Structure formats: structure tokens, C-alpha cells
């Protein structure tokens, strides 16, 4: 059980490190955010099964993470259509 917690925490830390260090492309930022959400989902699965609680909260969490992913992809597609790439430096944030 302790090994599972360690693996999940390492996934979370690695996702945050990628999010902080690789901020040139929007696609990499979105993938690192999805990796963080996946690690939090695994954390919820382990925790809720440990306390023997209902898994309905996981469905709500998955619903919000899917909405977050769809919103991120729509922003990525809109940015590529308007600017031609997904670099953060290619457009002004006025």
C-alpha cells in the first residue's frame, strides 16, 4: 500500500516539474496538466478504496477532468488556427 502512495506522489511531482520547466509549447503544458489529473485520479482511487467509500466521487472528478481536457484542446486548436503554432512567445498577451 505504501508503494502505491509513493508511486502516485512521484507521478504528481514529475507532472509538476514538467509543467514548471517545459512552458514553451501549449501542448506540453496541457499534457503535463492531464498527467497531474491522472495522478490525482489514482490518488482518489487508492484513498477511497482504503476507507471503503463509494466511488461516485470519481465519476464527478472524471467528468470535470474530461471537460478540462476538451477546453484545453479547443484553446490549442484555436491558437494554432490563428497564430500557426503553439508557442507562447508567438502572440501578445495584452
UniProtKB/TrEMBL annotation:
Compartments, record wording: Membrane
InterPro entries recorded: NUOK/Mnh_C1-like (IPR039428)
Annotated catalysed reactions: a ubiquinone + NADH + 5 H(+)(in) = a ubiquinol + NAD(+) + 4 H(+)(out)
Keyword Mitochondrion attached: yes
Coiled coil: none
Transmembrane segments: 6-21, 28-50, 56-80
Entry keyword Membrane: yes
Keywords: Membrane, Mitochondrion, NAD, Translocase, Transmembrane, Transmembrane helix
Membrane topology label: Multi-pass membrane protein
Primary location group: membrane
An example Gene Ontology molecular-function term: NADH dehydrogenase (ubiquinone) activity
Cellular component GO terms held in the UniProt record: membrane
Family, per entry: Belongs to the complex I subunit 4L family.
Protein's recorded name: NADH-ubiquinone oxidoreductase chain 4L
Gene: ND4L
Amino acid at each position: 500500500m505504501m508503494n502505491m502512495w509513493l508511486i502516485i506522489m512521484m507521478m504528481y511531482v514529475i507532472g509538476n516539474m514538467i509543467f514548471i520547466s517545459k512552458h514553451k509549447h501549449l501542448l506540453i503544458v496541457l499534457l503535463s496538466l492531464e498527467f497531474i489529473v491522472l495522478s490525482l485520479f489514482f490518488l482518489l482511487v487508492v484513498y477511497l478504496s482504503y476507507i471503503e467509500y463509494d466511488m461516485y466521487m470519481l465519476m464527478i472528478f472524471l467528468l470535470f477532468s474530461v471537460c478540462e481536457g476538451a477546453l484545453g484542446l479547443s484553446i490549442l486548436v484555436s491558437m494554432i488556427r490563428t497564430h500557426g503554432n503553439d508557442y507562447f512567445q508567438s502572440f501578445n498577451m495584452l
